[in-house]
What we know:
By secondary structure, the protein is an alpha+beta fold. It has a single domain (63-328, 363-472), classed as Amidase signature (AS) domain (Amidase signature (AS) enzymes, Alpha-Beta Complex). It contains 14 helices and 11 strands. It has helices at 2-63, 79-87, 93-111, 120-127, 171-178, 221-228, 245-251, 289-299, 302-307, 336-359, 387-394, 409-415, 425-434, 453-472, and strands at 114-117, 140-144, 182-187, 199-200, 204-205, 235-239, 254-257, 281-286, 365-368, 399-406, 441-447. A 9-stranded mixed beta sheet has the order 1-3-2-6-8-7-10-11-9. A hairpin with a 3-residue loop joins strand 4 and strand 5 (204-205). The longest helix is centred in the first third of the chain and has 62 residues, at 2-63.
Amino acid sequence: xxxxxxxxVKIEIICIIFISxxxxxxxxxxxxxxxxxxxxxxxxxxxxESLKNMEKVMDGIKTMDTFQTxxxxxxxxxxxxxxxxxxxxxxxxxxxxxxYMEKALEATKKFNCxxxxxxECQTRLSELQDEPKGPLYGIPISIKExxxxxxxxxxxxxxxxxxxxxxxxxxxVQVLKIQGAIPFVKTNVPQTLFSYECSNPIYGQTINPLNPxxxxxxxxxxxxxxxxxxxSILGIGTDVGGSIRLPAAFCGxxxxxxxxxxxxxxxxxxxxxxxxxxxxxxxxxxxxxDSLAYCMKALLCEDxxxxxxxxPPLPFNDMSPRVxxxxxxxxxxxxVKELWKHHIAAxxxxxxxxxxxxxxxxxxxxxxxxxxxxxxxxxxxxxxxSSYMVIFNLLxxxxxxxxxxxVTEEDEKELMNYTGFLNDIWDKTFKKAVAGGVDLPLAVxxxxxxxxxxxxLCFMKEVERLVNLKKIT
Length: 473
């Protein structure tokens, strides 16, 4: 009888200990969640203060400048035209900065594009008076959130990077400033950057300016949305699987992914390092191809080559305009052995693709882009659809997108009968993702061989020219 009582006491003690552990774990979990939400609220509050500061700075610029006639955003589209206007003093750099700050604030209130204001833009504005007028002199530029700017977080939408301000501008931002540009805002991204949605728990969901039910794409979604809304004339993004081209296509603007390492990646924040099979690229987004080419020419300068000696010192090949002929990781790896097999397979595929390209005597390639913009929430269910884009990251071919047309009522009717190749779950989900897209933009993708970035841009320009010619006729 004593032994039985003793055993029961032991059982009771074990139960009490177990319950205590469970309660402690639950309490710790609750405290962790509460702390997480409080951290998020503080960051969002800080962003609101940042946007209020942006309004104050904007008002300060307004009082120190005699303002000219309001900028016509529909006609003053190209970066080159705007820079010429600033250079010959038709319009002041302070006025341009004020005008785009005003439009950016308006855009982010509607579409949630901006994560942070860069108040040093005001100091940058005053410094320009004593500097030579570089090719980007006085141009306000928006920057993707993971591109490092001194004194600001680059969270990639992750809590672990909150309250860790960067010590130094990344090389691309340094070069932009050397060339006279004024970085003024950072823009939203999806959590981890590995998505072509544009939402994260810190800054929330960015929506497409063309349709509030649609995603602007990702991961450079904040950039594309801000430019499409008229809040920036030029943005800098990154692309490891379509992250520049997808949002550009979804928002009806142009975007360019150069050959990897054509532009410096030194000083970018990423969620996972060491990924080499599919390399990321830094590239521009704008409303027209001329602006993309002008930005690339400005960035491919001696300053960048000196700041980052790992970048090949290849200045921009300023080809004369001509008609270009058309036709004449990742999943995780389980071991080092498997990683090497993966690299070898990727190299073999690149060789096979390049050989096939040359056998067909292809100079440049026109191919589909993904679109129209998906309804919000569907990108995560259709990750395979990014294969249209990610193939050229794997191959390391330069590629860009150009908007060419819009979804018509006839397209929407045909979609009702769409079954895809197998009428499987992917085909059915895709149909739901793009349904109701009348009047949304559709883009094509232009591709060239590695290091033929200028040829790719020239081809994009020709596509754009033909599209504009068709609109006139």
